[in-house]
Amino acid sequence: MKNIKHVIWDWNGTLVDDAWLFVELMNDELNKRNLTKINVNDYRKHFTFPVKKYYENLGFDFKVESFERVGRDFINNFKQRNLEPDLFRNVIHILKWLKRNNFSQSILSAQENSILNKTVPHYKIDHYFDSIAGIRNIYANNKIDIAIEERNKINLNDDEILIIGDSSHDFEISKLLNINCILFSNGHYSKNRLIKNNCLIINDHLELKSILG
Questions:
Q1: Average pLDDT of 74-81?
Q2: What is the mean pLDDT of residues 112-123?
Q3: pLDDT over 90 for what percent of the chain?
Q4: Distance from the first to the final alpha carbon of the chain
Q5: What is the C-alpha to C-alpha distance for residues 130 and 36, in angstroms, rounded to an integer?
Q6: Mean pLDDT of all residues in 114-118
Q7: Residue 186 carries which DSSP code?
Q8: What are the residue boundaries of the structural domains of the chain, listed by start?
Q9: CATH architecture entry for 6-17+86-212
Q10: Burial class (CB in 10 A: 0-12, 13-18, 19+), 74
């Protein structure tokens, strides 16, 4: 991957270490419904896109309540706490290294766009990115449409672009756009799930220096 010029970052679980928060918020919802609570390992084994399917697998019954209302409640609670997680160790170091070595960078996230664009500046890293793009609704169904739009703004060849994420959905995006992909193993998907994608996997952001250098 020595010819990469632009890096597209996922946000949740890739740059920000927030799987634990999603577990705590989900357990609040599960507890209200007398459903079995989860831990981080459970979450990383079973979280998926579209998120509605994940909810159903946890026991939510959308015949008796609407997914839209459940999703709104979850996001409203998330917005109260979304600045609690820290960035992963070495994130700022690798963002600086990429910028210093003339890589352009952007963020592509399944988080709702207005929330995302309020959150990233909180960590004082927004100046590293040419664009910060989230989806247009709160339901985290997928980020395919916004991915296509963002790809069209990058005036580079496919083989010069790399997407880095923590889920199989990020790998799906890379295949759709015909760009390179690296998956990070300490986010919202377990490493065992990521291996099935037959994609390069990193366990620490600093590994990118040898891969891209």
A1: 94
A2: 95
A3: 87
A4: 9
A5: 42
A6: 94
A7: T
A8: 6-17+86-212, 19-81
A9: 3-Layer(aba) Sandwich (3.40)
A10: buried
CB distance 53 to 125 below 8 Å: no
pLDDT over threshold 80, residue 18: yes
88, 164 Cβ separation under 8 angstroms:
no
Helix residue spans in the chain (DSSP H): 19-32, 40-46, 51-58, 67-81, 91-100, 113-119, 144-152, 168-177, 191-195, 207-212
Query: Would you say 132 and 95 are in contact if contact means Cβ atoms under 8 Å apart?
Result: no
Question: Among 33, 27, 23, which Cα is nearest to 60's?
Answer: 33
Nearest to 22 by CA among 185, 196, 140: 140
What percent of the chain has pLDDT above 70? 97
Task: Locate 196 and state its tokens.
Answer: 């099935």
167 DSSP assignment? S
pLDDT at 137: 65
The first and second tokens of residue 100, run together, are 């210093």
Residue 93 CA to residue 163 CA, distance in Å, equals 18
